[in-house]
Amino acid sequence: MRRPDAKPLRRLILLAMCAAILYVQQQVLAFLPNVQFTTMLVIVFASVFTFKETVSLVFVHVFLVNLISFVGGGFNPLVLTPMLLAWLLVPIAYNTFLRRTKNEVALAFFALFFGFIYGWVFIPFTMLQVEVFEFWPYLLADLPFEIIMGTSGFLTVLWLFKPLHRLLRREIASIEKDGASPTESDDFS
Amino acid sequence: MKIALSLFVVALALGAYFFFSPFQSDEEGVITIEIHDENENLVARDEHPFDKDDSLFTVLDEHYEIIFEERYIRPGFSGKILLAIDGVETDFATTFIYIEKDGKKALYGIDDLPLEDGSVYTFRVRDVE
Q1: Chain B CA closest to residue A128
Q2: Closest partner CB to A132 (pick from B5, B16, B96)
Q3: A133 contacts in chain B (CB < 8 Å)
Q4: Least confident of A49-53, B45-49, B52-56
Q5: pLDDT tens column, B14-51
């Protein structure tokens, strides 16, 4: 007999697995500057989870990246803060002006634009860190990396958002269905 | 539609990437290095040949006594910071070495600043404001 709190627990496990996927894919692709699936995954998670759940995922991801890996700045607040602010913009945008759209073209253009926003959020914090307060060198130096991030975000959202959204929706529906495990009810083909 | 959009954005991104990337160095040539101390006195002015394997850093490292530090900020923002060149020193806290290329402020550091035949690279000590 299923306990009454099984559904929230399963959802929590699913969120933890999503956080793990988010972290691992970033580490695997860390050798390619700004080429990542993070933008696409955060958009997919924002589309299937609640705002609070997505914000929790972003918090876990950013803290993990900053605590454990070399991609972050060793828990440097001047790296952690802009990273957190930038990634939080995705669920905020998705739940506000994007109106929880499932249109992959609109989301792909958002991901393209977000690649630039992500870089710009870092500029004032980088200025504080290196203590050189000239705006243009930072903007120009980061532009090639923003272009890479925007393009990889655009392509991954355009091609992978729909199938991953559908898969995750099916998974969530199956774990919320009483008495059925995901493996019993879904073939994921 | 998706294929067309993808190709369009990739083409646009490639164009923008190469437009905004640091310009490529010349294959070979001669550059002039000028070093000024904290009182703006010219302490060195020399010409140095370079080839396609050189960067401004390798030229400086070969011909001058330099002290530099590797600074990592985040992917895309890391590189060498010049702290001293031929006895002209800075602490990067109150003063730093300001680099000019042909009299204009350099937008890149010693790692990425392209080498251009006939150009003058000037190093000055500036106060951090």
Answers
A1: B73
A2: B96
A3: 129
A4: B52-56
A5: 888 877 766 667 778 999 999 999 899 999 999 999 98
Residues of B in contact with A159 (CB under 8 A): 2, 6
Does A131 lie at the interface with B, CB-CB under 8 angstroms?
yes
In chain A, count of helices (H) and strands (E)? 7, 0
Q: Which residues pair with B98 in a beta bridge?
A: B124
The count of CB pairs under 8 A between chains A and B is: 69
> Residue A7 contacts by C-beta under 8 Å, 6 or more apart in sequence?
A175, A176
Determine the structural domain holding residue A141 and report its residue range. Answer: 6-176
Interface predicted TM-score of the whole assembly (ipTM), two decimals: 0.72
B60-73 mean pLDDT: 85
From the list A136, A140, A151, the residue facing B9 with the nearest CB is A151
Cα atoms in the Cβ-side hemisphere of radius 13 Å centred on B114? 10
Q: Strands B120-127 and B29-36, how do they pair?
A: parallel
Residue A93 lies in a domain: yes
Write the pLDDT tens digit of every residue in B78-129: 678 899 998 898 988 888 999 998 988 887 788 888 888 999 999 999 887 6
Which domains, ranges and CATH numbers included, belong to chain B?
2-127 (2.170.130.30)
Under 8 Å between Cβ of B100 and A164: no
- The answer to whether position A94 is within a domain reads yes
List chain B residues with CB under 8 Å of A30. Answer: 75
Taking contacts as CB-CB distances below 8 angstroms, the residues of chain A near B73 are: 73, 79, 126, 129-130
How many domains is chain A built from? 1
Residue A109 lies in a domain: yes
CATH number, residue A85: 1.10.1760
